[in-house]
Amino acid sequence: MVRFRLETEINKPLEEVTRLFSNRDLLTKWQPGLLSSEQIESYPYLKYKLLLSFGRRKMVMMETIIRNELPVHFEGTYEMKGVFNRNINTFQSSGPHKTRWTCESEFRFTGLMKLIAFFMRSGFREQSRVIMANFKKFVENK
Fold this sequence. Notes:
28% helix; 51% strand; alpha+beta; seven-stranded antiparallel β-sheet; Alpha-D-Glucose-1,6-Bisphosphate, Chain A, domain 4
C-alpha cells in the first residue's frame, strides 16, 4: 500500500477553483493522458469509464464518486487491473483570492502490480503532484 498527502495553494477564489474542478468537460485540459470520461452508472454512486493513454498504450480506468460535497470535499475511487486508488480532495479558502487544495491518496495493489508498485512507489506521488500542478496552472491561467 502507498499513502501520501499533497497540498498546493491556487491563486483563485474557492468558488472558481471548485467550479473548474467539477466540470467534467474540462478534465482533459489538465489531466495528462486522459482521453475521455463517460458516465456509465448513476446509482448508488456516479461511475465513469475513463480512457487513458500511457505512451502507445490505452487503458480503461473506472472512477466512482463516493462523496461530492463541493466546494469543500470530493472523494473518489479509481480502479484498473491490479490497482485501487482512493483520493480525498478538500478545498479551503486561504484568502480573498486563494484556495488551499489538499489531496490524500491511498493506493492498493494486487497481482503483478504489487511487484511493480514496490519499485515505483515514488512514481505514484509524482504523478499526483503533476496532476495537481497542471490543475493549478490551468485555473490560474483562466
